[in-house]
Amino acid sequence: MRGALGALLAGFTLSAATAQVPDQPEAEGEVLQLPVPEAPPEATATASGPVDPADLESWLDGFMPYALAQGDIAGAIVTVVADGEILHSRGYGYADVETRTAIDPETTLFRPGSISKLVTWTAVMQLVEQGLIDLDADINTYLDFEVTGVERPITMRHLLTHTPGWGEQVRALIMDDPERLQPLDEYVRNNIPAAVYPAGEVPAYSNYGTALAGHVVAEVSGQSFDDYVDEHIFAALGMEYSSMRQPLPEHLQGLMSSGYMRGSDGEGRAFEIVTAAPAGSMSASGNDMARFMIAHLNRGEGLLSPETTEQMHTTADRKLTGVNAMLLGFYEQNRNGHRIIGHGGDTTLFHSNLHLYLDHGVGLFISMNSTGRSGATGRVRQALFEGFTDRYFPAEAGEDLPTLDTAEEHGRMLVGNYVISRRAHQNFVAATALLTQPSVTMNADNEISLSILTDASGTPLRFREVEPFVWQQVNGVERLSARINENGEVEMFSAAFFAPFMMFTPVEWWRNGALLMPLAGIAAAALLLTVLFWPVRAIVRWRFRTRFALTGRQAMAYRLSNIGALLPLVYAAGWLLLITHLMGELNRLDGRMDGMIVFMQFLSVLPVLALLIAIWNAFVVWTGGASWFARLWSLVLVASTLVLIWFVIAAGFFNFGLTY
């Protein structure tokens, strides 16, 4: 999870998409630089497998301390399993900076965020295996209330593949006050998101969907979700230092790592409460995560039958060719020609990744207890995954695919602004999608770039077309793929990393930031100049003892036009300040700011009033014999007010209610 407004581009809290989206450098211009791992000598390979424990320990000892120090991260746990055993599990840095408490891989608990979903999906598949849940039945079959407002029935398969079609829901998703925590059954009843896409069509990562699946587990099993997971997952695998309960059971509370925004803060933050608990509430030690990885790598041993495990690991919901797909709960992370599945997870303070190398019986888990600086946790996780994979599972030498002759034609089809499928659509949070629209550009070599896919220096990656509507990263392994509709238009596209759970879709013309943002800037400048010149003119008249020339209706129109110019500026600025404050600490979305949100919704009358004033002022000016400049400027005020109303509508500010 990230607090900055722009970070919402990668998804809101409990995101699965943070590892490869670099945050922008901070104000001081620092960019986190990580060491580039070197390939090991051939002699380090062992007979038991490709990962040599001594080489792994040496490599991690060189990489992790430096990465944590550069990223201002207090501590991390890195766990590697191979051939059914823990190959390496070690803490780096501190579980508590103030007391300098070391990390115990067996007992120190971290918060793996959305990796918790894998526990929930495993529980679901246990009940599927028992015939108690049908993946393709209407989800309402298993609920004690009804999910309505959808174009077609939503199924458990849709929840597993993040295709129920719901928009983003962030209200009360994460908080620091356990007294405000809603029970799971209340949460899923009271927070049904608005349907945006027909079920099954567009991947759009959904925390609510996983929470709903957890509620189904409780309804079908007759146990609470926490009780079910304790008995059928944690106890079954001997995961004694794991829990989905919030707050933690008393015997585990003293084992929880502190969480930090930055390691240098010194003082840890409060234990985070995830309201959509099945989507991200787990606390677990590194060794317990090893037990979970081993179970899945060993064909579900202790959890699922081999057949159900294979179904979970291989059933792909592939929306695009040539890139990764969503599986049943896991998402593909294939690299260098190797089958890899996994999940990412973030709370506000903890940031984690889990990877399973299915053909090699190897698992890799990392969790960090700080957000750090300059997008540190995303870069550390990605560098670890890429370095580990390239070091121990390198790609075989292959043929370099040529750039297609259609590169220019197809590249130009993609050029433009997009919105991500995982976003808020009908409320003020939609402003984040308007302000952070990713864009596709093309260079003179007919290579395309996606603005949010950058290297460590912030330079956009370049891609060339190697298959029809499939682009390969220049000197890299990332891929882009697009789907074209019957009219020859881009329907959706995504990068290999995002494709399992998030698509980029063309933005409607009236929401297109490339058009709207410059116009809104010009309109705001025109209104601001009007407001500023009001007192300036008064001062000039006072200084030179000049009489105010307007009288009667014209004088009133002049004064009201200046007030009217101020109203939409105050309204838009108020919303932007409020959203920036809310997204700065996502636990502020727990409902404590609802009064301010309602107040801003009440102020929606201001831009409407401003438009009425601007129209009346134009009428008075044009019928009162005013100068040509006054007439022209009256039209500028009308147009500028209309543009700002267009902006606030596109940003979702004219939406009422507290569902967000």
TrEMBL record:
Which UniProt keywords are listed?
Membrane, Signal, Transmembrane, Transmembrane helix
Q: Which residues form the Beta-lactamase-related domain?
A: 68-377
Concerning Pfam families, the annotation shows:
Beta-lactamase (PF00144)
Q: What transmembrane ranges does the database entry give?
A: 515-536, 557-578, 598-620, 632-654
Quote the InterPro entries the UniProt record gives: AmpC-like, Beta-lactam-related, Beta-lactam/transpept-like
Cited SUPFAM superfamilies: beta-lactamase/transpeptidase-like (SSF56601)
The signal peptide stretch is 1-19
The protein here is known as: Beta-lactamase
This protein's species is Glycocaulis alkaliphilus
